[in-house]
Amino acid sequence: MEEQHQAIDQAHAEASGLLSGWRRTGRGGEELARAFEVLLSALLEHMATEEKHVLPLAEKHVTAAEWRELGEHGMAKTPKWDVPLTFGMAMYEGDPAVIKAVLAHAPLPVRLLVPVIGRRRYAAHARQVHGTSRPARLGTLG
What we know:
Layout: H1 2-25, H2 29-61, H3 64-77, H4 83-93, H5 96-104, H6 108-130
Helix pairs in contact: 1-2, 4-6
């Protein structure tokens, strides 16, 4: 897992470094696209490993309170402006039952507003990034 974290960090740094130059000049798009492909590959490999090996261990050894604390920590570290977009991405890609379970623990205003705002924020983001509000889902990528 640590090696995968290092690969993700390295791929993220590479893509971020290229992104600033591309934004300034509009050049290097193919190199930037390759860097994002490397980052995506590293992330998908890591998430698959987590689902296959880490989550079954967490289910056996992490209490509900500890799991909730982990989620709260993640939310505290996420800029509030990014929460609706992040949730919109999760709703687009994720298992509806998992999304429903996560929302069940949220305060009523969050349960009501974040799904609506999240869908809109993700659709706008996807249009900007992919040219469509409904891009291919990660599970459909080759």
